[in-house]
Amino acid sequence: MVDNELVKLNQDVIKGYEENIVLPEVRRFNVLEDYDLMVKEFIKFHRLKGNAESGLKTYEYALNRFRKYLINANNFIDAYINMLEEDMRKGTSKPYIKLNTGIVRHFSKHFHLHYEEQLPIFRYELKNPEYVSITDYNRIMEHVDNYNYKIAFFLMYSSGLRISELTHLKVTDLYPYENYIQVRHGKGDKERKIVIPESTMDLLLDYIEDTLMERILRKDGGEYLIISKRITEDGPMCKGSLETVFRKAKRAAGITKKITPHSLRHGYATNLLNDGVSLKVIQEQLGHTTLSTTQHYTHLSPSYRQSELNKTSMFNNEKVFNVDKKLSE
């Protein structure tokens, strides 16, 4: 089956779900007996829609957790809510609680179970994300010894890549003449182009020549860009090892802020804002679906607000603040 036919088939299946061609058959299921099958159907539906596998695993985990209360408790909604509240008392983050209940609500609506009508909506105040300043970045890099990890963190900080996007990059995703990176596995499996400085591309090409050339020849050009620490391994660098190396380097640098490799992405966006780059360009670089997500970074950047305010007549016109002395006498 050619790709176009496969895409057409997926679209037809999704349309069938959305128009309740498949759902009436599912509705005849006994929720207690067929819950596992319903979860599989739910995951399958979202896989067809193009959801990332990492997100689907989160769906599955949240629904399996809900299953324990659905089957074992008479007042299962109350028992589930009590469990969530206990999680919060133990320190589980409110965004994580909201994510879990959101998945259950979505599952309930999908199968017309009406559980969402009994589930509360957990609201929380969105905190500004921590970001890595240039000073902190340089301090951390002083304690990263391995060249591959240095390149990984440098690329995240100079391009705004998510950690999952970084680990999926291949050498063939670099376009040196146009100075951009093709991200093929973004959030929701979306693709985008990230423009990078010529100096960054030159450094990456040097890294490829010094570190990857032998593997590239052996793999016919399809090698991962950021490779595992051990030369005997052919796979990409894993997320866990990146997080461990970053955490140890941060601790060695004496930095106490709660920052992770993902904070490098926040630092990239903040640096662009401070340099006067428009929010629209930053949105495209980061791969945000909506501009409102990108606007959240303006809270991190006082210098951006200052530069924007300086464009206004009130901040740029001395006459506005010229108080006549006679009025004050």
Give a description of the structure.
- The chain is mainly alpha-helical.
- The protein has two domains: 3-117, no CATH class; 134-257, Intergrase catalytic core (hpI Integrase, Chain A, Orthogonal Bundle).
- The chain is built from 17 helices and three strands.
- The protein has helices at residues 3-18, 23-27, 31-48, 53-72, 76-89, 94-110, 134-141, 147-159, 163-168, 198-218, 239-252, 262-274, 279-286, 291-295, 302-309, 313-316, 325-328, and strands spanning 174-175, 180-183, 192-195.
- The protein has a three-stranded antiparallel beta sheet.
- It is globular, with a radius of gyration of 25 Å.
- The chain starts with a helix and ends with a helix.
- Mean pLDDT is 78; it is low at 1-10, 17-27 and 314-329.
List keywords for this structure.
mainly alpha; globular; disordered C terminus; hpI Integrase, Chain A; 2 domains; disordered N terminus; 3% strand; 329 residues; single chain
SSE arrangement:
Blueprint: H1 3-18, H2 23-27, H3 31-48, H4 53-72, H5 76-89, H6 94-110, H7 134-141, H8 147-159, H9 163-168, E1 174-175, E2 180-183, E3 192-195, H10 198-218, H11 239-252, H12 262-274, H13 279-286, H14 291-295, H15 302-309, H16 313-316, H17 325-328
Antiparallel strand pairs: 1-2, 2-3
Question: What's the gist of this structure?
Answer:
The chain is mainly alpha-helical. It has helices at 3-18, 23-27, 31-48, 53-72, 76-89, 94-110, 134-141, 147-159, 163-168, 198-218, 239-252, 262-274, 279-286, 291-295, 302-309, 313-316, 325-328, and strands at 174-175, 180-183, 192-195. A three-stranded antiparallel β-sheet has the order 1-2-3.
